[in-house]
Amino acid sequence: MTKNSFYNAILAAGYIALVVTTISTFEGSDGPETILVPMAMLSLFVLSAAMMGYIFLLHPVQMYLDGQRKRRWTCS
Question: Residue 55: which residues within 8 A CB-CB, separation 6 or more?
Fold first, then answer.
């Protein structure tokens, strides 16, 4: 996303708050449990992993692929 890690952390917290709010809204439904509930939870887990990967890993991976690597350790 951006080079500012605080901005990325705020985006991640906002995404988590949105997910929790959405789940809390639908928590009161006492309908029959079907196979759709576990499928929805697994889909949400995969979407969340993709979103966090996008937010936190996009910029470092782009820098690495563009050749902006830094050597932090040297072998003697």
Answer: 1, 8, 11, 12, 15
